[in-house]
């Protein structure tokens, strides 16, 4: 383990002074607050947030978090029967299955259309832009909650198309299409 070399012209370290000198800490907090509220500080913070939001990990983390939002759960009338780590584990399984099916891919493929998904956020345009290729988490059977065996990792376009369809409705549509000799 290599210890950092202290600057010989500075007899104290910033961390030590910050932790041990209450007056210095108070001044630094005030200085940081001013910077954070400045245009430059806000721009730097937004840039960092956007880089994370557009990263795979940031985007998936937010998608998982949205499942657990109390307002979303009340709207669905269903509370998740799986934990956040459980969803990550199911996503890992999905990726492995898709890699087996499509060895040339990274496994980040929609379960329905089998196209790759993306992680794009648009901020600052005045309105939210929906990217239909973005990662989404679907409940395969909309009558059931988010749980093991009922998760579909897909693109938001496919999720939007399926939106309120139940498995019973889909089965009935297929039955009618067969009766009409459409498929």
**What number is the mean pLDDT?**
87
> Separation of termini?
67 Å
How much of the residues is beta strand, in percent?
Answer: 5-15%
How many strand elements? 2
Q: What does the oligomeric state look like here?
A: single chain
DSSP helix fraction: 40-55%
What gross morphology would you assign?
elongated
Major sheet details: 2 strands, antiparallel
Summarize the structure in words.
This protein is mainly alpha-helical. It has a domain at 77-179. Helices cover 52% and strands 5% of the residues. It contains eight helices and two strands. The chain has helices at 14-20, 22-37, 39-53, 56-67, 70-76, 84-101, 156-162, 167-179, and strands spanning 135-139, 151-155. It has a two-stranded antiparallel sheet. The longest helix is centred in the middle third of the chain and has 18 residues, at 84-101. The chain is elongated. It starts with 13 loop residues before the first helix and ends with a helix.
Give me a quick take on this structure.
This protein is mostly helical and 183 residues long. 52% of the residues lie in helices and 5% in strands. It has helices at 14-20, 22-37, 39-53, 56-67, 70-76, 84-101, 156-162, 167-179; strands spanning 135-139, 151-155.
List keywords for this structure.
elongated; mainly alpha; 52% helix; single chain; two-stranded antiparallel ribbon; 183 residues; 8 helices
Break the fold down into its secondary structure elements and pairings.
Blueprint: H1 14-20, H2 22-37, H3 39-53, H4 56-67, H5 70-76, H6 84-101, E1 135-139, E2 151-155, H7 156-162, H8 167-179
Antiparallel strand pairs: 1-2
Helix pairs in contact: 1-2, 2-3
């Amino acid at each position: 383990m290599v210890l950092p070399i202290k600057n010989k012209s500075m007899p104290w370290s910033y961390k030590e002074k910050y932790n041990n000198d209450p007056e210095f800490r108070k001044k630094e907090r005030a200085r940081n607050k001013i910077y954070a509220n400045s245009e430059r500080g806000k721009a730097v913070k937004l840039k960092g947030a956007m880089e994370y939001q557009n990263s795979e990990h940031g985007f998936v983390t937010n998608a998982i978090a949205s499942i657990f939002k109390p307002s979303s759960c009340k709207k669905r009338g269903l509370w998740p029967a799986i934990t956040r780590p459980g969803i990550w584990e199911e996503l890992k399984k999905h990726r492995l299955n898709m890699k087996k099916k499509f060895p040339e891919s990274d496994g980040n493929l929609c379960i329905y259309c089998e196209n790759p998904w993306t992680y794009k956020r648009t901020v600052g345009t005045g309105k939210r832009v929906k990217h239909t290729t973005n990662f989404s988490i679907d409940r395969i059977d909309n009558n059931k909650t988010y749980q093991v065996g009922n998760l579909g990792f897909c693109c938001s376009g496919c999720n939007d198309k399926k939106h309120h369809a139940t498995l019973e409705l889909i089965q009935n549509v297929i039955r009618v299409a067969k009766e009409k000799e459409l498929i």
